[in-house]
Amino acid sequence: MSNFNKVVVFNQAIGNEAGDKQNIDWDLLTREADMIQSEVDELRKAIKNKDANGVRDALCDIHVFAYGTHHKMGYNADADMNIVIDALYSRFCMIPEDLQATIEHHKQRGVDSVTIHGKYPFAYIKSAGDYPDAPTGKFLKSVNYCEPEFNE
Prior knowledge:
By secondary structure, this protein is mainly alpha-helical.
């Protein structure tokens, strides 16, 4: 059972049924966002205090609230994460031709100095100079990058 499904079971056990995708309760989502922000604040406090257990707890609580929010909207967080992760991986250059096309693409955008990192299928480039939209060290997306598309 995935972590999302475990959070769904927890939510159902306390009376939080799946939301209706066609009739999202935006006020409820606002309260959920407030809870996530509270956990982010706890995360920052734990980091400031160099409290590894506090960081771990806060990160997990953020996941729980985020998964719960997906559930309360009526969406499957596992399916959404797969879409987002696929898009994330599309930032890499899988073959040499992708890498060369990506370098050329960014060169045409004015970023003519890059460094190459990783190994195929996870090769990527970073800006090697300070450019308006690409400061030194910025990860530059592959020409094959695809934004996440949620079809539902």
